[in-house]
Amino acid sequence: MSTVTIKDVVKSFGSETVIKKFNAEIKDGEFITLLGPSGCGKTTLLRMIAGFHKQTSGSISIDGKVVSDEKTFIPPERRGIGMVFQTYAVWPHMNVFDNVAYPLKIQKLSKEQIQKDVEEILEVVHLSQYKDRMPSQLSGGQQQRVALGRALVAKPKLLLLDEPLSNLDAKLRESMRFEIKEIQKRLGITVVYVTHDQVEAMTMSDRVFLMNNGVVQQVGSPLEIYRNPVNQFVANFVGKANFIKGEVSGGRLKIKGTDQSIAYDGDKTGDVVLTLRPENVKIVSESADLTGSLKSIYFLGNENDCQIDIGNGVLVRVIADPHTFDNISLGQKLNLKLLDKIVYEDNGENDSYNKILT
């Protein structure tokens, strides 16, 4: 188990700065996710924690010991970490047991100790019955568990995971998310996990660091980030959202391009962006906040994904109860009730978000 302190870390490659003054205190036993789009700097940051890159400035400490700063640089093999990469990186000529045992053989432990430690970790990653199989005889999920077992067998203080599930199919990714979280809780190990997949971040993390262009946009629990996104980038990246231009005046928020408005008692004035989660817009029978006509509806089994035109092509995406599919039809007039909403200032910098996201 381990704590990690990252202080004022900056990383540049030539004239390009990819990490801009990153700070974090990661607690012992915490599961942290670095989340963001490709190129945001999350993998670069993970590799600096691991020791594969050295930061341009700032410091990184593990368990109170500086592992990298202006004067110090401890190599990866001496940092007490385990790492799992996006590719399985298992030795094709070794069976499961020997793959997992490899780090212990490098340490020149006794055969008895290696046998004991490997058997223990194979049980943790549910591979005991496959210990004599070759990688070519395993599924993708089993190979990734081999890589996970190899990273854990040396009892690292810190486990780093770089998009370990991105090569797996959807069903396998789902089951592996639960398995990794269960292993982390069972061992009490500190984890830093990199992904661009918001579902992985939401289901596994104690805290999420959401990054964009080398800058942390928001830090918080999955619930905090989802319910209270600090800006439109966060609202857009985590979950689905409608972004609708409006104008605040006299206690009302008027939807631009329409003749509709809603009550507003917040602190914003002038041009704003109304942000609505699709699941927070409900189709109701009584009079409500907005009205519109059904433009499209897609039956997804457990829900209906609808788009409703509230005037002059201004669309609101609604995630509706699946039973509504047989009760509403294209072109039908519908009443909408807003259960929750967020209002941002419209500063002209986020035009790319001011549209229905499909």
Q: Can you offer a commentary on this structure?
A:
With 358 residues, the protein is of the alpha+beta class. 23% of the residues lie in helices and 34% in strands. It is built from 8 helices and 20 strands. The strands form 4 sheets. The chain has a 6-stranded mixed β-sheet, sandwiched between helices. A hairpin with a 2-residue loop joins strand 1 and strand 2. The longest helix has 18 residues, at 170-187. Mean pLDDT is 92; it is low at 353-358.
- Percent helix range: 10-25%
Low-confidence stretches: 353-358
Using only C-alpha atoms, the radius of gyration works out to 25 Å
Tally of extended strands? 20
Which structural category do the helix and sheet elements fall into?
A: alpha+beta
β-strand percent reads 25-35%
Across the major sheet, the strand order is 6-7-8-3-9-10
- The shape is globular
Whole-Å distance between the termini?
Answer: 42 Å
Count of DSSP H/I helices? 8
The main β sheet shows up as:
6 strands, mixed
Mean pLDDT: 92
What is the N-to-C succession of helices and strands? Answer: EEEHEEEHHHEHEHEEHHEEEEEEEEEE
